[in-house]
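Notes to self after the call with IL:
- keep both proteins in one doc
- input above output, always
- annotate only the second one for now

Protein 1:
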Amino acid sequence: MRKYSMETAVGLFVLIGLLCVGYLTIKLGKLEVLGGESYQVTARFTDITGLKSMASVEMAGVRIGQVASIALSKDDKAMVTMKIDKSVVLSDDAIVSIKTSGLIGDKYIKISPGAGQPIGPGGMLTETEPSVDLTDLIGKYVFGGVK
């Protein structure tokens, strides 16, 4: 009888340990299990070179969301869907640009706030700036295209 109680205690300890590891994985990885407190907005870009899903979305240097998905529209533009925290209200004239963190860093989306009408879930941000391609910029500098 004592053998079974020891095995049950060890099994219970291992189960609690696995639950704790799972909880920490979700919390530290900033994953959303049941949807979270966010809404989606879309922006249309001519070029999003280097931007990936799950990239950060920032306003004034503060992370306010992440890139949910990237798709190609029928008019050959890149459609970027972003999950934005519900506490953040975006306006319809906000400027959305793709920036690089560091010289060879990852791409992220920067939103400059506007003063227009607020947009709700499923809204479209139309004022966009494409990403700057570093190789094109260096090529222009080397071959005299920059003045």
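Protein 2 (the one to annotate):
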Amino acid sequence: MNVASRSLLWCAVAFLEQGRVIDRLSRALTASAIVSILIALAIAAHPPRVLVGVASVAAFAGFAEMYFAVRVGFDASLFRRVAEAEGPPEFAATDAALEAMGLMAPAKCGRPAEARIAGARRLFRFQVLALAAQVLSLLIGATIVLASP
């Protein structure tokens, strides 16, 4: 790898770290959805199914977002480690460690930085989509609840 690869890794780290902002918002929405479910179940003998359903969808989307946030954060940390290492950036030691831990399939070892960053960007997009599913489900639920008599 060369200096351009190191710059590419730094840019990837800066981009992937934005996943923290998404995760904070999602965690607040997930907590709100869970609290809404618990309140509905505690107060009403027959809680509105729409409210519980919509809040459940938002909570499940929130849990999916948390999974992707962990993966995106992990990739950002690994990219930072490789970018900060002395000498030219290389993934051989990181690949060996990940393979030994069972976190990387042997077939994926030795990939170029560009392929790794493309995979991390895909995870970031899934994280954003999970947040979008949360927001959309809550907006739909709020619309239905407000429109009902």
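Annotation: The two ends are 64 Å apart (CA to CA). The chain has a mean pLDDT of 91.
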